[in-house]
Amino acid sequence: MALHHAEPGEIVDVRPLGAKLRQGINATLVLTDRLQVFRFILPAGEEFAEHKVHGEIIVQCIEGEVEFSSRGKQQVLRPGELVYLAGDDPHALRGRCDASVLVTIVSEKQHHA
Amino acid sequence: MALHHAEPGEIVDVRPLGAKLRQGINATLVLTDRLQVFRFILPAGEEFAEHKVHGEIIVQCIEGEVEFSSRGKQQVLRPGELVYLAGDDPHALRGRCDASVLVTIVSEKQHHA
């Protein structure tokens, strides 16, 4: 799996990993001043404990099923479903079965007076 | 198809439209100060002529095949593939067959001194 970050205009593969999921690695696919896109792998039963990020975030389920907890409720994300959260919104994820998600984070750019 | 914009934490369906594609409509799914996510439908042979947007953009193919032209080259985007472009980078899209794409635009926030 490529560890380099895509150039503008470069095609990036975010298809399901399928049988290769457990050999897959979390990979940052796009990284710019404002934008970070990465694939995060959640094998069945594994958890990404509650955390928050400074910028707005989109989590899109690529494969499997993910328990997504935020704002006091737990929902199941299935392939082709996404959620977004405002910056600093605490959330947690857990794989109900082998799963991977595509995460997009919009950076809060630092502006200096 | 919902025309309302998702609230934070609300699950948004971006699965392929399949047989309903030609009855589908372009829909903005998420809209905040910084972030716009919409589904754009490209029936076979239809074109979204060259244009540019001010912010960084990600185009992800949901279904079908899309000719994506930018930076002097034409590529084919297939389901599960995405590209990003820097702001103001001209690009054009054309459906090679009935297709839909998920477009994410990071707004350039206006800062006033």
Automatic annotation (TrEMBL), chains A, B:
- Output the superkingdom of the source species: Bacteria
Signal sequence residues: none
Sequence ranges assigned to domain Cupin type-2 in this UniProt record: 39-101
Protein name, UniProt field: Cupin
